Input
Amino acid sequence: MDYDLIVNILYATVRTGTPLILVALGELVCEKSGVLNLGQEGMMLMGAVIGFIAALETGNLWLGVTFAMAAGLMMSLLFGFIALNLSANQVATGLALTIFGTGLSAFVGSDYVGTPLVGIEPWHIPLLSDIPFVGRILFSHDPLVYLSFGLFVGVYLFLNRSHAGLALKAVGESPQSAKATGLPVFKIRYLAVMFGGAMAGLAGAYLSLAYTPLWAENMTAGRGWIALALVVFASWKAERVLLGAYLFGAFSIMHLVAQGLGFSVSPNLLAIMPYLATIVVLVMLSSDKARVKLYAPVSLGKPFHPAD
Amino acid sequence: MTIDIDLPPPSKDYRLQLQGITKQYPGCLANDRAHLNIRPGEVHALLGENGAGKSTLMKIIYGVTRPDAGVIYWEGEPVEIADPAAARRLGIGMVFQHFSLFETLTVAENISLSLPKEQVRDRAALSRRISEVSDKYGMALNPDRLVHTLSIGERQRVEIVRCLLQDIKLLILDEPTSVLTPQEVDQLFATLRQLSQEGCSILFISHKLNEVRALCDSATILRAGRVSGHCVPAEETNHSIARLMVGDDTPVHAEHEKTTGGEDYLIVENLSVKTDDPFGVNLESLSFTVKAGEILGVAGVAGNGQEELLAALSGETVVLDSPAAIRLLAQPVAAMTSGQRRKLGVGFVPEERLGRGAVPDMSLKENGLLTGYFQGLTKAGLISMPAVRKFAETVRTRFNVKAPNTETHAKCLSGGNLQKFIIGREILQNPKLLIAAHPTWGVDVGAALAIHKALIELRDRGAAILVVSEDLDELFAISDRICALYVGKISPIKETRETTIAEVGGWMGGDFLESSQPAPQQAVGA
Output
């Protein structure tokens, strides 16, 4: 393989991994607070379609991104109301949210399928993008990719270094104890759910405004589910979420490259590779049960009744 | 002893006064016009049975729950305590019975979560303060340890130090001694006396009357949500205080004969189990026997291998590599599942009543069937409903389970009643070996006596019984021989008549390991 091909593969890896990172970081924060939101796919689709429509109608791509995040946020508030206020089963509520979001986004976007749009352009960071190899791979992307770098650092520091992150983890481990300690359990969980929603909306916007600037029904193609699996297999650690997302991105690209190079393997088998490889690597990383138990939010998915 | 009707008016002489506190839960009046008066520096006991309303009253003081009616006075001024943060601002701290700690965080992180933000910016300074305070009160603590690596006694210290880091004026402790060895209790009491001399008031919730009499200056006794009396504990006997707690018609004490038992029925030899739970304990070559017709009591502070031992004995954990490590008479059973062991005549009363001992959403009838199906409750593989109903009905009436009928769901029963049902269900199957975990934990005095009597009767019919409990008084009352578990190792086993609470307390703290001679082998063989 020549130099350009490698650079191109790695460049595409970053692009492909970005939507996964965005949605998985949101879900990571949400799950760390003890709330399991399976509605990622639905929130992403709503973000994608609303972002696309807003950008097209206003002609402002960044307004589109803002609307997409707002759409994800609204969806997560719906989830929050049902799962937190009404203490409904989180799994059922999340599944319903995905089904709802899939249908609603198809309905809202039916007039926009196939409409062309000039997407968010790459922005070559001066100086940094001139660095050989690394500059092309990391610093010649659209601004949403840079935003995903920043959000990763932010979430990492929040979870590992901040007092607020400590409170979030405490709520996820034992809401009863957290309440007795005087932490606002409801507020913290709501904020975490809302963060997850906004991030899913942002990931949707990335797909419909930057990655492939168009709207198509069900265009997330299961990325919301992959992100959910990533969070679990990454044993709830931000750095492993990043690793898993890029790994998935790399293998997704590899299978296109392999097809292009004319490997005589069934394309269906190649299409399995990203899923298989990501899961194998993350399972190996998380094979130490005892250590995983230290990071898993103990009360994940359990409704909290403040009266208990 | 007085039952005073005239309450002292609100005054600066009292640190905390409660008047007319009422709290109604659906179907239960938890507090009925309760009152309480605590002076500065006073150690005040709050006594009562389970369900008497102690916990609710404490939660009201600490701002976890709001009362429906009544007034709280703090140093003579009426106050509203909206949440725990408000209580802490007044100078109220609380040590919970089930600790409110986060196991995956460090000591310092746990403490920082309950402090105001300004105080936790500088983590190094916080760690220094934690060390200073813990040294001053004789409670050694390392701020950087993860909480799940700490013993139960150390976790309690974290909770206490967490309270002491604030400007504390009233410290509430909810049954603080139930998880400690007698020696740790002495240490805790020394700390509490030091605090009270410095002017901090202490509200001590307990049902262990000896401890209350040793520590407390005064006591308020609750019964069924109402204050049933006040006393100066040192001037009373256990019996007179217990009377106030349970009322006039319940017996509060019973003596049981000790026996020596017959042949070895359960034989455990070199049982080692590795746990895969990061918060668990490995069992290290345990050897002991339980004879037919005796009760062996296993003492120990929670988290010293009791759960692992019970799982190995019940068959929830199977020991495949050494099937002979557990034997019933000569038959190796360690590799058998719980169902196979039940067929051989083993009965279990697990620690968790709801979820393990009984299915919360099933009726008593169905819960009876769950373990009783070998007792002719099925015909040709199909459930025989009349037989199931009769079995559950027999348990209900024979063991005086207070439930309207056998269709009642298990989760609707009080802890004591459900425990009577579970124990009755096992005893009616005439087990040759009964393994009972914490049989009277959270059960009121009357029900506890009934459970003890049932166990003694089963013993006298020739069954071998193993009781695991944290309550030394209970073990001394019913067991014929006694031992203790400490970090997965077993202490020497002695006849209950020939040992003392202090000696067993020492075993619970692990002092049997310090002597260089191997533990006496009297446990094995015979």
Notes: Residues 3-221 of chain A form one domain. Chain A has 13 helices and no strands. Chain A touches chain B through 22 residues (CB under 8 Å). Chain A has one domain: 3-221.
